[in-house]
Amino acid sequence: MHNDPPETAFLHQAIELAVQNAATGQLPFGALIVRDGEVLATGVNRELEEHDPTAHAEVDAIRNACRALGTRDLTGAVLVSSCEPCALCHVTAAVAGISRVVYAAPKELATAMLGPGDDGPSLLVDMQRALRALVPGQVEHVPTEGDGRPFERFAERGRP
How far apart are CA 119 and CA 104, in angstroms? Predict the structure, then answer.
């Protein structure tokens, strides 16, 4: 019998947030901040509507959690993302004290479905690789059924 990791239900929730965001014409990414089995906040990618290249789902979720709790410290929390976080999101999680990040879809799936150019500059990819080397095991891919649904929904709506 296969035991799902404890984050599986939260990963499905992040995927659903991403599908809903894509359905509104926004980029297909969603994230949650979870601590002690409780969702503290959620976030979706708002780059297009806010014309803000830092408005990633993970950053949105971190901001929302900090505001809701009245703190900048999310020690003990886990960042749960529908897709592999970039260097910006990884650094933001570290600044907030989040020591663990789990994600559903690998960035290669996003690139394959969204097309080249949406993966960000190669410098960001190099930064992501360097960050991961500093703290091995901090960011964990948890294969999750349906991880491609947000990108499929985004493709159905067409590029903005």
Answer: 16
pLDDT tens digits for 99-134?
A: 899 999 998 888 777 765 544 567 878 888 899 898
Compute the chain's Rg from CA coordinates.
15
For residues 135 and 156, what is the distance between their CA atoms, to the nearest angstrom? 37
| Cα separations in angstroms, 21 against 9, 24, 127 | 19, 5, 27
pTM to 2 decimals? Answer: 0.91
Q: Which residues are catalytic?
A: 58
